[in-house]
Structures are given as C-alpha cells and as structure tokens.
What does this fold into?
Amino acid sequence: MDSHTLFRNRVAVLATMHRKERVIAPILQRELGIHVIVPQNFNTDRFGSFTREIERSGSQIEAARLKVEKVLLLTGESLGIASEGSFAPHPHFPYISCNREVIIFIDQENNLEIIGEELSTDTNYNHAKITDIKQAFEFAEKVGFPEHALIVMLNENPQNTDEIIKGINTEKALLEAINHSLTKSFNNTVHLETDMRAMYNPTRMKNIEKATYNLLEKINSLCPKCSAPGFDIIKRIPGLPCEWCNTPTTLTNTAIYKCQKCGFIKEKLFPDAKQFANPSQCMYCNP
Ligand SMILES: [Zn+2]
Ligand SMILES: [Zn+2]
It folds into this structure.
C-alpha cells in the first residue's frame, strides 16, 4: 500500500463552487494520477460564508470534513476533498492579517483522512467604513482591486442577502454598488470589504495552492511500518535549545509521528531541520 497504488486513476470529488479546482486539480492529477471532479449545484455556502449571513458550523477542519461527507453522500464516490479558509489578525502582530487554509482529503475506501495546511500573512483581507465614492476607491486601490473583488454591505453584520453586493470587480459596478447602498443607508455610511471567495481573490487562491502542496507532502509521507500514506505529526514537544546559551525555547525539539492505519509511533529529533533556536526566540538572550 502506498499513495500511488492507492489513488492512481481514482476519481476525487472536490466540494467547491468557488473554482478551487483551478489550483487543486492539476497538482493531484499530475503528482498522484487522481481525476478531480466538481459536482454541479453543490452549494458550499450553506456550510458558512465569509460575509457572515450564514454562520460556519464548527471549527475550520470540522467544516471542511462536513463538506466532504455531504459531497460523497451526494455523488456516491469514496474519495473527497474540501478546503476551508479563515482570516484573523496575526497572533503577535495584530496590525497584520493572517490567512489559514486547510485542505482535507478523505478516502472512505481505505479509511484515511489527511490534512494539508498553509498559514500565510500574504492576504489582502481588510474592511472599511466609507461615506463617499472617493474613500471607496482609495480602499479599492489599497487591496488590489479589480483583480481582487470587493463586497459592499449596509453594515458589517448583514441580516439578509439583499443587503450584500458581492463579487464587485469593475469600477462601474463599484460605483453603482456604493451609490445604491449610500441611498439605502440611514447614517450615510456603508461597509466595504475584500471578497475572500477563492475565484475573486488570486492571493487566497495562491495560499490554497500552497496548502495543496502541503497536503501532497503529507500524502507522500508513508508509515515506515505499513506504508500507509499520511504519516503525520500528532504532537510537537518544545525545547529546542538557544544557539547562544543552550536554554530550552518554545520551538519544537522533537515531533511525534503516528500512523492512523496501524498506530505505529516514531519520534523525530529536530523535525524542522534546525538543531538550535535563534537567540531572538530565547527568554534570556532576547528578553
Ligand atoms: Zn502504519
Ligand atoms: Zn539564549
């Protein structure tokens, strides 16, 4: 059993309506011989949308897993893929936004679940309150419009879909949307934000592609005992010593890998290919 004999010439259903197949399908086709198909009329928005009119169910990984389960049920296939993105301020630098992309790969035939991930500060995720057209175009220029689309809303927590205009990617459409929303607004203010749906956001699409390469790496990581794909880290143990004073830091010293098939466990020293931590990470050398 290895990733090539397991997956070659199989059909995988990708649960998306935002054109994610553009970056996901070629990688899995070329590297593993998987034929990726996208079902028609599979509405992924009912699992939660970025514009918050529908709340996401559960965690990011749970939401992706749920999408795969639904799409496999719908199509009767046994191999499914879904991805899910989230955007939040960087944990250490709140002025910078972070995009976390997860992509989940589930093989029901072989009882495998493998998850790829990308954490990136490369995102245009942003929003603004604006009161006139000039401010709207200033915001648009800052976030890479028109290659990256925009969303106009009456306020930041829309109650229903007719308060939201999505996928704005021409100057004319932006002008119309702003004017339309300004006339409907009580306080002469509208909420403008970046459209984070993959096909309207090339920067996010790039991060989904990187997450797919990470997934491929994990699919190709085989258990040394039974060769099952997805031999992955289940625990990171901190304590990588400081390069100057040898004090243990919070960086990973040892990683524990586990096979989800046979349960084989392996410890790996210095999994990030570094034997010492940079002194900037040390609580004594860089207080
Ligand atoms: Zn194994
Ligand atoms: Zn130190």
User: Anything to note?
Assistant: The chain has a mean pLDDT of 92. The longest helix spans residues 202-219.
